[in-house]
Amino acid sequence: MDGSPxxxxxxxxxxxxxxxxxxxVIAEKLMVLIAxxxxxxGDELPGERELANVLHVSRETVRGAIQTLAAQGI
Length: 74
Known about the structure:
Helices cover 54% and strands 0% of the residues. By secondary structure, it is mostly helical. It has four helices and no strands. It has helices spanning 5-9, 22-35, 48-55, 59-71.
């Protein structure tokens, strides 16, 4: 079974399948909300704790995603 094509294609333990960070994924989700006008300029975001709970990530990840968007002028 060592030569199985399926096994050779499997990621190694600790190898990431997706190169994006959780921060990038959350920033992308927030961008989708903005692009679909579910979030508009001037709208107040829910608090970091609430966003973290809803998105199942840490507050630090949420904070980083917001900082990423702010750095892009969004």
